[in-house]
Amino acid sequence: MAKKSISASSIQKGFQDYLLEEGKIPETVRIFTKYLKISDEDFYKYYGSLKNIEKSIWKDYFSRTLKVIQNDPEFEEMDGREKHLSFLYTLMEIVKPDRSYILYKLENKKPYELPELQGAKKVITDSDIDWAKNFQFLPDKAQSITQSAYKQVLWSHSVATLIFWVKDDSASASDTDVFIEKTTRTAFDIGELPALDSILDLSKFFLQKMGFSKAPA
Predict the structure, then answer these.
(1) Is the pTM of this model over 0.85?
(2) 160-209 pLDDT per residue, tens
(3) What is the 3-state secondary structure (H, E, C) of the chain?
(4) What distance in Å separates the CA atoms of residue 33 and residue 130, rounded to the nearest whole number?
(5) Quick one: which of 84, 67, 146, 159 has its CA closest to 118?
């Protein structure tokens, strides 16, 4: 009999399946390895504890996204707004197969407080991404501080997009595409003259989605 193929990603997938089927995380490594039909030794080759699995799942979502877009030969020719759109759309493609898991993790919870997301956050805030907003009218030192703060904004925007996506019941999640376009335009217009128009347009979109306005978004 062929030996069962084991990898970090297969353990991640098994963890997601267990969580969705049982409605809770495994109580012990032994319970989980019996579920996967692997040995404890095989598990510890890849993970030191159960809690590290979810941290790795979320870090991989963002690390894989960065890898894909940075390997795109056209990426470097994009401006900041286009790069961020590329990032968000790529992220959504990568997480799409795991929608049930992400819905379980994010729905009716405080996503920004989840420890596994806090670990993933560093993939963005500690990276050398060059599309964070740079306010040219500020002194050099202030620009550096502002750009660091903007990475926090872009991280929050990414999580907000995931939250919107898991609640989006439109065909092919088309409302999420609108959300990405409008919120990105607003985020990159902050500090620029078009900001007010972008904010008003985004507000109209949210009002329409919440049923307070019949005007098309």
Answers:
(1) no
(2) 899 889 889 888 888 999 999 988 887 777 655 444 444 445 445 444 55
(3) CCCCCCCHHHHHHHHHHHHHHHCCCCCCHHHHHHHHCCCHHHHHCCCCCCHHHHHHHHHHHHHHHHHHHHCCCCHHHCCHHHHHHHHHHHHHHHHHHHHHHHHHHHCCCCHHHCHHHHHHHHHHHCCCCCCCCCCCCCCHHHHHHHHHHHHHHHHHHHHHHHHHHHHCCCHHHHHHHHHHHHHHHHHHHCCCCCHHHHHHHHHHHHHHHCCCCCCCC
(4) 42
(5) 159
